[in-house]
Amino acid sequence: MTHEHRTVHRIVGVLEAVARADGRPVSLSALTNQLETPKSTVHGFARGLVAEGYLEETPQGYVLGNGLHAVLGPAESSVVLLLKDVCEEIAVRTGETVTIVVRVADSVIYVHTTPSVYEVCYVPKLRVRRPLLPTSGGKLFLALAPRQSDATIAERFPAEVMDAYLAEREAIVASGVAYNRGETVPEVGAAAVGARIEGKIAAALSIAGPGPRVNDKLEYFGEIALTTLADAGLA
């Protein structure tokens, strides 16, 4: 086995070992034993996978991360299976495009969308990494589900983008809704709310459409989404 293939084999082995645990955290020691590989090597691979969002590190060990949504293609993930009916209900009640958004490291990825009833509508590209800011979903994750790495978030975005987010942060925390009015895509407005699984925000739901049609309705859309998630036990 060549050095390059051995490296790939070990990285895949880390992912497969964590996947086999079926959601239970896998410690570094357990990974080392399963792969029969030096701890320092496994730790390096695991840190890289965490940085890219393919693993998440918890106090108990490693679990699969949201980065896998970027490579699953059309396969349905558990988050999509859990939320797609809620998306459809919100889309019916608002008439606009509803998208499931997950955080992956310092990015967000749109993993599922329910289309608008209108011919002129927002059609997001799926499984592409986008910067956290200034997306509505990214604002929501930063405000309501911050991570330790966010301590240096200001270094990663232009000052004007960061200042705009900080000016909105208190309102996002108070209302549970984040907005984007043409900041990412001109003439497109969006509202995002958090979907909670076991008390933690696992995804954001974004309701988006042409700005002239939706900007005055975004607060109302946020209320609809929060109510729908609460009724489904996901708020």
UniProtKB/TrEMBL annotation:
It comes from the Bacteria. GO terms for molecular function: DNA binding; DNA-binding transcription factor activity. Pfam families: HTH_IclR (PF09339), IclR_C (PF01614). GO terms for biological process: negative regulation of DNA-templated transcription. Residues 60-235 form the IclR-ED domain. Keywords: DNA-binding, Transcription, Transcription regulation. The keyword S-adenosyl-L-methionine does not apply. Residues 5-66 form the HTH iclR-type domain. The keyword Heme does not apply. PANTHER family: HELIX-TURN-HELIX TRANSCRIPTIONAL REGULATOR, ICLR FAMILY, HTH-TYPE TRANSCRIPTIONAL REGULATOR RV1719. This is IclR family transcriptional regulator. It comes from Sediminivirga luteola.
